[in-house]
Amino acid sequence: MRITGGMMITTLLADLRRAQQRLSTFQNQLASGKRVQRPSDDPVATVDSLRLRARLAEVERLRANAQDARDWLEMTDSALDRATQILQRARELAVRAASGTLPDSSLQAIQAEVQQLQDHLLEVANSTLGDSYLFGGFGTQQPPFVADPASPSGVTYQGINGPIQREVAPGTTLTINVPGDAAFDPAFAALSGLQVALQNRDLQAVSATGIAALDQALDGLLRFRAEVGAKVNRIELGLYRMDEIRVDTEQLLSGVEDADIAETAMRLSVSQAAYRAALMAGARIVQPTLMDFLR
């Protein structure tokens, strides 16, 4: 088979294109730091990359859920702490009043302060995180408690009870809300009962039932705080574990996608030399071919 000048030039151009593609590939890898630029570069690595990126996306979703749940629970604990302080102050006042040694003016002052504590407790029970009420169950967009003089406790609960849940780790879902009526109804009832006893100057009732009701309400708040604290600790452990998973996955992804900079730089240098050699060889081939054509 006779090798013509045209065939030689065609072969030369094909070789130059391949050399240029290799050169461009290594230049892109070096510039981006990524070994896989297109799925065709390494189909197996592409599948692994997609799988690892899906895992990272899932970890980030769960971390966002966990952080949201932690914020909710921490704000809940803060509100329960304030409610606890209110009841503790009310108990101090009840003990003073029950002593039977205070003048009527002091009892009036205690009664007025208990009223202020009731108002403050209503504010705490309607605490929010952003635009969401913490203690209204599913009814997060309206205050769960409203003042109601006709109610024995002085308030009415209008929340919609139900668990607000967050998936905070793989296979782990937590209920993050505390039912407002269970947490606060005993507290409102205790303060209201104390207020009535003080108004009637029934110090026996203050001593016999008022303090006991406050203690019972305090015990309930402390139980809820213990549950909230345990959930926060569980979330913290989950976040720590997910951070470990994220780091491990990012390392695996780096091994799949990232280019070895030193090796890529060496391959780029070799490709540049090969490309220059191909150009020089092509020049020697093309020159006599053109001369033959001119003759």
UniProtKB/TrEMBL annotation:
<dbReference type="GO" id="GO:0071973">
    <property type="term" value="P:bacterial-type flagellum-dependent cell motility"/>
</dbReference>
<dbReference type="Pfam" id="PF00669">
    <property type="entry name" value="Flagellin_N"/>
</dbReference>
<dbReference type="InterPro" id="IPR013384">
    <property type="entry name" value="Flagell_FlgL"/>
</dbReference>
<keyword id="KW-0975">Bacterial flagellum</keyword>
<dbReference type="InterPro" id="IPR001492">
    <property type="entry name" value="Flagellin"/>
</dbReference>
<feature type="domain" description="Flagellin C-terminal">
    <location>
        <begin position="212"/>
        <end position="291"/>
    </location>
</feature>
<dbReference type="InterPro" id="IPR046358">
    <property type="entry name" value="Flagellin_C"/>
</dbReference>
<dbReference type="Pfam" id="PF00700">
    <property type="entry name" value="Flagellin_C"/>
</dbReference>
<keyword id="KW-0282">Flagellum</keyword>
<dbReference type="GO" id="GO:0009424">
    <property type="term" value="C:bacterial-type flagellum hook"/>
</dbReference>
<keyword id="KW-0175">Coiled coil</keyword>
<protein>
    <submittedName>
        <fullName>Flagellar hook-associated protein 3</fullName>
    </submittedName>
</protein>
<dbReference type="InterPro" id="IPR001029">
    <property type="entry name" value="Flagellin_N"/>
</dbReference>
<feature type="domain" description="Flagellin N-terminal">
    <location>
        <begin position="8"/>
        <end position="131"/>
    </location>
</feature>
<keyword id="KW-0966">Cell projection</keyword>
<keyword id="KW-0969">Cilium</keyword>
<comment type="similarity">
    <text>Belongs to the bacterial flagellin family.</text>
</comment>
<feature type="coiled-coil region">
    <location>
        <begin position="9"/>
        <end position="69"/>
    </location>
</feature>
<dbReference type="GO" id="GO:0005198">
    <property type="term" value="F:structural molecule activity"/>
</dbReference>
